[in-house]
Amino acid sequence: MQSGPAADPSATGFRRRAARFRAAVVVTSVAVVLAAIAGAGCSNSPYTPQEMQGKVQFRTIGADPKSLDPSFSYTVDEALIVDLIYPTFYKYHYLKRDPFVLELNLGAKEPVKTAWPVTIKEKDGKTRTVQGERYSFTLKNDLRFQDDPCFPDGKGRHITAKDVVYSFKRMADPSVQCPVAPYFADKIVGWPEYSEAFEKAKEKNYDKEMEGVQLDPKDPYTFHVILNQPYPQLRYLMAMHFTAPQAREAVEYYKDEYPRHPVGCGPYYLSDYQPKQRLVLTVNPNRHKDVYPSIGMPGDAEAGLLADAGKQLPLTEKIVFNIIRESTSSWNLFTQGYLDAAGVNNNNFQQVFTASNALSPELEKKGVSLRKETEMCVYYFAFNMNDPVYGGLSEKNKKLRQAISLSINADEYIQLLKQGNASPAEWVLPPGVFGYDPSFQNPYRRFDPQLTRAKKLLAEAGYPDGVDPKTGEKLTLYYDNTATNAAGRQSVGIVSRMIERLGIKVVSRPSLPDQFQAKLLKGQHQFIFYGWYADYPDPENFVFLLYGPNKRPGPNSANYANPEYDRLFEQMRAMDDGPAREEVIRKMRAVSVEDCAWIPVIHNVAVSLTYDWVKNVKAHPLASDAAQYRNIDVDLRQSRQRAWNKPNFVPLVVLAAIIVVGSLPAVAVVRQRVNRRVRRADAGGEGDDS
Amino acid sequence: MSFFQSDFFLNLVPCCVVALLLFAIWRAGKQPLWAEAYRRLRRNKVAIFALVIIGLYGTLALLESLGTTDKASQTRITLLDRIAQKTGALAVQERYYSAPLATMTTGEANPQPLKAPGQHLLGTDGVGNDVLLQTLKGARTAFLIGGGTLLISTPLALLFGLMAGYYGKWQDDLIQYIYGVLASIPTILLLIALILVLGRGPVQICVALGITSWVGLCRLTRGETLKHRDREYVRGAKALGVSDFGILTRHILPNLLPVVIISLTLGFSGLVLQESILAYLGLGVGGNIGSWGNMIDAARDELAREPVIWWNLTSASVALFILVLAFNFLGDALRDAIDPRLRS
Amino acid sequence: MLRYVIRRILLAIPTLIGVLLLTFFLFFGLKNPEVIARQNLGKNPTQAQIQQWLADHGYDKPLAEQLKRSTVDMLLFNFGQSDTTGEEIKERIKKGAGPSLTIQAIIFATGLTIAILIAVLVAYFRGTYVDRFGTLLTVVLISIVYVTYIIGLQYYLGKRLQYGPVWGFNREAGLAKFILIPVVIGVVAGIGASIRLYRTFLLDEINQDYVRTARAKGVPEGTVLLRHVLKNAMIPILTTTVATIPTLILGGLLLENFFGIPGLGGYLIDAITNLDFAVVRAMVFLGTLLTLIGYILTDIAYALVDPRVRLE
User: Fold this and answer.
1) Within this chain, do residues B246 and B303 fall inside the same structural domain, yes or no?
2) Per the CB 3.0–4.6 Å rule, which of A623, B132, C70, C93 could disulfide with A92?
C-alpha cells in the first residue's frame, strides 16, 4: 500500500483508500479460493497416471512391516509381502482345497525319506542310538536371485542348496529370533549345540556346518535334514518362508537394514519402500518359471478362476501396498475405487463389514463382491491354571470354570463383535485340520439363556449365585486384556456382561501389550482372551497349545498341565493321519474339555470386499502368495474411477456467496463511518476510537 | 499409589473442584475488591449463560461422582445412574449399536428390536449403552482431568511463581531455569513421554498434564509478583515486620488472583481438549472410565462402518464443544470484567 | 549484533542439557529396559533372547554409558537404532523431515497470513457485528477438538466434495493436491487462537497515543490500521509465532496419520503404539531443538525490529 507522504484529508481520498483496502481484501480472498479450486481441479487419485493405466494391483496394509526378514517375520500383513519375494521348496496349490495340496515350487522332486540312526549324547556322558530320519531335498537347478547391488555386478546369483542350508543356520542363530526355531530345536540333530555356539561366540561363524542340516557332497542342489525323531510336519515347514533360500551376501551387505532390503527369487521384488506410505513390488525378471494352475475345484471354472490357466505368473506387473493406519482413510479410498480390495488381513477392517451378510445396494451397484473364508484359527478364553481361585484340576474349580464357560454365548459374541462372520468353536481344532469333528458338541459350550446348568455348576463349585460364602461377597474375575482402543473395550464389555449374568463380578484389567506379556510370563493373569492361527494344517500345531511342557514362556498361556493329555500328545504328534490318530485326538479332547482350562469361542471368518475388476480371487487360509495369481481389468477400473471422482464445487460457490452477502452491511457501516468522520472533520472534531 | 487409583479418590477430585468453584464465587461476591468486577460480570448475559452451563456440567460431574456401592452386585451406582433409572430409556441397556430414536439395532447382520424402542435420544453405542447417558457421564472425567490437573499445577505454579518473583536472585534463576527447560519441550511430546513412562490412567494423566501446564501460570505469577514486589503497600508491610510468608499470602496473592483466575478458566478448557487428543493417541484415561475422548476415539472405526455410526462422535464432540465454549466465554467475560483496560 | 546472537545461543545450551537430563531420567530412571525388550521380541522370548536384545540395543551397558548415549550422542545426532525395527532413526528422520516440514511450513505461512488478514478486518470493524461475529467464530473454532476437525473435514472435503485425495503423498503424482486438504484442516484448526491473539495486539496498539495523533491528523482508518497499527503489532505477533510450534507438531501427529503423509508425526505415532522409546526420545530431543531455535530466531528478529532491546 503505497501512498503519498502526507495523508489526504479529503473525504474522496479516504473513500479511494478504503476502496483500495477493500479491493485488496477481496483480491486476496478470491486468489485463495482460486488456488483451492486449481489445486482441487486435478484428480484426487493418489497414484500417477502411469500406475493407473498399468496392470497394477492397489492394496493396503495397516502398518509398516516390522521386518521383511523371512527368518523373523511372522505377521499376516508381512507374509503378504515376504511370501511373494521368498518362495519355498513347496507351495500350496492356489485352487485346491479339502485337503490343501502342497506342490513342488523350488523343489525339483519330492524329498526322499530314509531311516537314519542318530547317536544322542546324554548329560552323563553316555551315548545312545535312536532311530531317526533323514530327508533329502533337491532344488531346481535353474534358480537365480533377483538382481541386487549386494551381488557382484548387481546380477542375481545362481541358487544352490547352500542358500537353504544358510536359512536353517540363521533360524538357529538366537540373535535372529526366529519364531519357529523351537519347532526344530528338539528335533534336528545338533541344533541346540549349534545355537549355543552362536550365543557364545563373539564373531558369528556361519561357515561352520550343522550336524543335522547337511549339504550333499555330490549334488550342489541337494541337502539333507537329519531328525532324531519322526517329524512328518517338516514338509509343511518347507512351505513357510522361514525355509526359503536366502543370500548370505545380502544379509552381510545390508546388515541391520536387511529387514528392509529383502533379496529373494520370487515372482516379485521390492522395488520401492517409503515408510508410512507405500511399498511397491515389481515383477522379478529372474523369477523361476511358474504358470497359473489349470485344474481347480469343481465350480472354479464357472467362477472364472481358470480363465488364465497356463499363463505365466505373475499376472500383474506391480503391486502397490498403501500403508494406511486409519481405517476411515482406507475405507474412503476404497469407496472411491482407489483400492482394489478391502478387508483382507487388515484388522481394522473387521469393523467395516457390518454390511457383510447382505452387501449394501450401493456397494453392490459399484461392482463390489463379498467373499468369506473360514480362517484356520481358534480364539479362546483361557484361565490361568496356576490361579488359586480359578485354576487347578480340583473338582470344585473345574465346575467353576465349566459354569463360566456355559455363560459365554458364542452366538451373541459372533453377532455383536464379528457381525456374524465367525463360526462357534467347540474345541481347539478348526475346520480344515485333520481331526476336526463337525459333529462334536462341547457339553460346556451349550448356552441356554436361563443359565440353569451353569448356575447349578456354580453352586456345586461352592459359589451359589456367584457369592463366596466365606466373605459373603461376589466372586471377582479379573479379565486381563490389552484393550486400549474402543473396539477392544467394546469386546471386553460385551463378554463381561455375559459372565456377570452368573452373578460373578468381572473386573477388566487393561494393560499395555508389554505389561500384558509380562503378566502372562509371571503368571499374574487370571482370565485372558487369545487367538492362534495355523502355521500348517496339522492338528499338532493346535493341540500343542495345551501341552504341559509348553507352559509359559511356551505357547501354553493357560499353564494347563494334565499328565494324561501330555502322554496322549506325545503319542499323537508323530503318527500319520488315520483312524488311530483320530482316536488319540478324541481322547485328548475328552480330557481337555472336561478340565475346561480353555473356553473355545470362535473360528474366525475373513471377509473381504473386492471390486469386479479384480480377477482370480480365491482366499487361502494358509498361503499368502495369492497376489501373484490375481489379474486386473485396467480399463474397467479406470472408467469406474473416473465416473466416481468428480469434485463438487457448489458448496464452495455457496460459501463465497455467503461471505459476499454477509459483508454488504459491513460496507454500509464503513460508508456511514466515513460520512460521520467527514462531518466531524467538518465540525473540527477529533477522530474517535469506538 | 492404590489410594490414588481408587474410586474414592477419583470421585473426590470432581467434588473438590465443584466445591472450590462454589466457594470462589461465594467469596468473590463478598470481597470489596471484587465487587466492581462482580457487578460488571452480572450484567454480562453471555457470562451468566456460560456460568449456568458450567454449573450444569458441574452438577452432572457431581452426580456421577457421588454414589454408593451396591452390596449385592458389587457395582457402583451413582446418583446419575439412579436418576437415569427413573427416566425411562436412559439406563436401559440394549445389545448393540442403534441410531438415535431407532427401534431396531444397527450394524449387525440381523437387526434386533430394542428394549426401549424409539427412546434413546442419541442412540446406543457398541455395548448397547445409551449414548446420552454416556455423554452426560463424560462430564465427570472432564472435571476429573481438568480439575485434577489444576489442583496439581496451580499450587505448584503459585508457589514457584511467587518465590521467583518475590525473592529474585538464585531462587528466581533456578525456577526460571526449570520452567525454561520444561517450556522448551513441545507440550504434546512431553505429555507423550511422561505418559509412556508413568503408564495410562486418570491420575497419571493429571500428573503429566500438571507437569506440562504449570509453566504458563508460573511465568505469569512471577511477572505479576515482580510488579507488586516494590509497590508501596508491600514495603509498608515489610516495615511493619510482616513475615515474607504473610506478605506473600495476605498481600501479594490476593492482588494476583484476578490474573490467576482468568488463566485457570481458560486453562481448564485447554485441558479438557488435551484429554481427548490423548485418548486418540491411545494414551487416554483407559477403558474403565467413560470419557468424551474415548468416544471420539471410537469414532475412528465407527465412521468406517457401513452404515456410518455418527452419533457417538457427534454427541461427544458437541458435549465437549459446549463445555469448552462456555469456559472460553467465561474466561473472556472475566477478563473484561476484571481488567477493563482490555475491554474493546 | 553477532555478540548478541552468540550470547543468545550460548544461553540455550544449559536448557538443552536440562532437557537431555530430564529425558534420560524419564526413560532410563523410570523404565526397565527388560520390559521394552519383552515387548519387542513378540512370541514368548527366552531369557537368552532378551539378553541378546538388550545387548543389541545397547541397554546392557553401564549407566554412565547410557548417560552418554542419551546426552552426547543426541547432541551429535547419533540417535541409534529403533527399538522396534532396528532401523537407523536418523535415516527415518531425514526421510520424514521433508514431508513434515513442507506441510507444516505451508500451514504456518498460510495460517499466519490469513489470521493477520482476518484480525485486521475484525479490528477495522471493531464494535460492529463483524467484530462480534468474528470473535464468536474464533471462540467456536478454538473449542473444537483437532481430531473432530480432521475426521469431519476429511469426510466432507475429501470424500463428499472430492477436492483432493483422502490419503497419500506421492511426489510423482504431484504434491499440491495431496497437500490441499491437510493444509486447509491445519489452517482452520489453528487459526482461531491466532486471530483472537492478533486482534488483542491490534486493539492494544489502536489505543496508543500515536494512533490518535495519526487519526487527529486525518489519516484515514484503513491506512492507520495497515501502516501504523499493523506494523507495530507485528512485533508481538512475530514473537508469539513460536508459540504455535507445539500446535504444528500436534497437527503433524494427527494429520499425517489420517492422510498418509510419510512424515515425522506418523513415525512418532507408530513409536507410541510400539513403545519404541528410542524413537520417542529422539523426537522429544528434536522437538525441543526446534523450539529452542524458534525462540532464538524470534529473539533475534525482535532485537532487529525493536530498538528498545539492548544488544549487550
Assistant:
1) yes
2) A623
Residues of B in contact with A327 (CB under 8 A): 300-301, 304
Q: Which amino acid is at A135?
A: Y
Which of C241, C243, C268, C239 lies closest to C256, judged by CA? C268
Total residue count of chain B as it appears in this document: 344
What's the grid cell of residue C310? 539492548
Question: What is the tens place of the pLDDT at every residue in A165-222?
Answer: 999 999 999 888 888 888 898 899 999 989 888 877 767 788 888 999 999 999 999 9
Distance of CA B91 to the CA centre of its chain: 25
Identify the bridge partners of residue C81 per DSSP, sorted by sequence position. Answer: C88
State how many domains chain B has.
Answer: 2
Chosen domain end from B81, B105, B128: B128
**Residue numbers in C near A677 (CB within 8 A):** 221
pTM here is 0.84
Using the beta-carbon criterion (under 8 Å), do B184 and C292 form an inter-chain contact? yes
Number of A to B CB contacts under 8 A, please give it: 103
Interface confidence, given as ipTM, is 0.87
Measured distance CA(B172)–CA(B150) in Å, rounded? 23
B198 plus B285 within the same structural domain: yes
Neighbors of chain C by Cβ distance (3+ pairs < 8 Å): A, B
Q: Which three cell numbers mark B292?
A: 468424551
Domains annotated on chain C, with CATH: 2-75 (no CATH), 96-273 (1.10.3720.10)
- Domain with residue B54: its CATH number is 1.10.3720.10
Phi-psi region of A606 (alpha: psi -120 to 50; beta: other; left: phi over 0): beta
Gap between the Cα atoms of B129 and B135, Å rounded? 10
> Does the beta-carbon distance from C44 to A260 stay under 8 Å?
no
Average confidence (pLDDT) over B125-135 = 87
The helix/strand/coil state of A63 is coil
- Residue B171's Cβ-side half-sphere holds a number of Cα atoms within 13 Å equal to 11
Range of the domain at B175: 2-92+130-342
User: Is A686 in Cβ contact with C215 (below 8 Å)?
Assistant: yes
